[in-house]
Amino acid sequence: MTETAAPSASAPVSDADPFSAPHLAHPGPLHQQLREAGPVVRLSRYDVHALARYREVHAALVDWQTFQSGAGVGLADFRHERPWRPPSLLLEADPPQHDAPRRVLRDILAPLSLRRLGQRWQEAADHLVGTVLAERGTEFDAFDALASAYPLQVFPDAVGLGPHGRENLLPYGNMAFNAFGPRNDLVDADAHRVGKLSAWVNAQCTREALSEDGFGTRIWAAADRGDLTPAQAPLVVRSLLTAGVDTTVHGLAAALYAFATHPGEWQRLRERPELARVAFDEAVRRQSPVQTFFRTATTDVDIAGTRIPQGSKILLFLGSANRDPARWTDPDRFDLTRDPSGHVGFGMGIHQCVGQHVARLEAECLLTALARRVAHLELAGEPRRHLNNTLRSWASLPVRVRPTT
């Protein structure tokens, strides 16, 4: 992508609303239409340009200088609109404001730093799977019993949250990710509890609310050292709580759904449990819990012959890029022989999800525990989606299992 002053062709125009209920429930057909229409498509309903092919999405994600996040990664433009809460220092900031918070979190959440959690999280996963099989039998809702229950236990523990009020985390995340889209019915449905949920989350980010040995206290220690300011510390903790729960929950649900509909891959995982992390990344590629993010052009920019004016909002379809047949062979298939590295489900470039190693560790522990105890996994009913402007979310995932003997 290069800046240019030369005349450019007009992008094809679509009047589709990617945030409508039908498209949120079944995004695949729209993604295919956008990819086939061209490398850039103008969405007339919102007067934004859209990128749905892998090549252009990847290039925009890594070029933060041209495609900024600091004006907001949603439809709202922070240069002209006041955000509903202080912007995220990780997701909605660019260098130099982005540098210190990311550096602190990168060190706290580095793979080597997470090793001490591995045994504890594996024991928690083994206990949860055993309890579910003992108490719920061979048919249960895997979204409720596993995909949401496990992260809501181990991740808040690791951050240093107390035991009370954790039921607020998923509703808060749902509200935050809805806010990246337009002000539609999904946003309005949460309007009555914005204040209550925001107040609860903000209270958990204070130094006093956090245990002495969690990620949160280490963030505050970075402020004591001068690596962050005291004003930045609670916002960095909040970033963990906003982005570190919902995405992992729905990523785990995507993996369980994939295995329930691909029995051969479940047997492959049981034979080779070391594939658990590959399986999680393949599920994230295939289902993309984070479907879209916006960027803002910092200058007139030419993409594949189409001029996008400075200041324009650009909608990046991460979910579409992750199923682009120009990048992935048989992209709709869940395949543990595939190398899913390079998918953009965690973003790419300097804004790539700093907590992705945490999510992979959670997935490895839970999938490994399940593979040891369950010989066969299948759907026991029709899964239900929970609509969200940004997330590919789940409401229910009924499964039937056959435990190992």
- What amount of the residues lies in strands? 5-15%
| Sheet/helix structural class | alpha+beta
Helix content: 40-55%
Strand order of the largest sheet: 1-2-3-9-6-4
C-alpha geometry:
globular
Q: Number of DSSP helices?
A: 16
Describe the oligomeric state of these chains in a short phrase: single chain
Q: How many strands in all?
A: 13
Separation, N- and C-terminal Cα atoms? 57 Å
The rounded Rg comes to 21 Å
In N-to-C order, the SSE pattern is EHHEEHEHHEHHHHHHHHHEEEEHHEEEE
Mean pLDDT over the residues:
94
Instruction: Please outline the major beta sheet.
Output: 6 strands, mixed
Unreliable stretches: 1-8
Question: Could you characterize the architecture of this molecule?
Answer:
By secondary structure, the protein is an alpha+beta fold. Helices cover 46% and strands 13% of the residues. The chain contains 16 helices and 13 strands. It has helices at residues 21-25, 28-37, 54-62, 99-108, 111-136, 142-159, 169-178, 185-190, 194-204, 215-225, 232-243, 246-261, 263-271, 276-287, 318-321, 356-373, and strands spanning 13-14, 41-43, 48-51, 67-68, 139-141, 292-297, 301-303, 306-308, 313-317, 374-379, 384-387, 392-396, 398-403. The strands form four sheets. The protein has a six-stranded mixed β-sheet. Strands 5-13-10 form a three-stranded antiparallel β-sheet. A two-stranded antiparallel ribbon has the order 7-8. A hairpin with a 4-residue loop joins strand 11 (384-387) and strand 12 (392-396). Helix 5 packs parallel to helix 16 (356-373), helix 10 (215-225) packs antiparallel against helix 11 and helix 14 (276-287) packs across helix 16. The longest helix is centred in the N-terminal third of the chain and has 26 residues, at 111-136. The protein is globular and about 65 Å long. The chain starts with 12 loop residues before the first strand and ends with a strand. Residues 1-8 have low confidence and may be disordered.
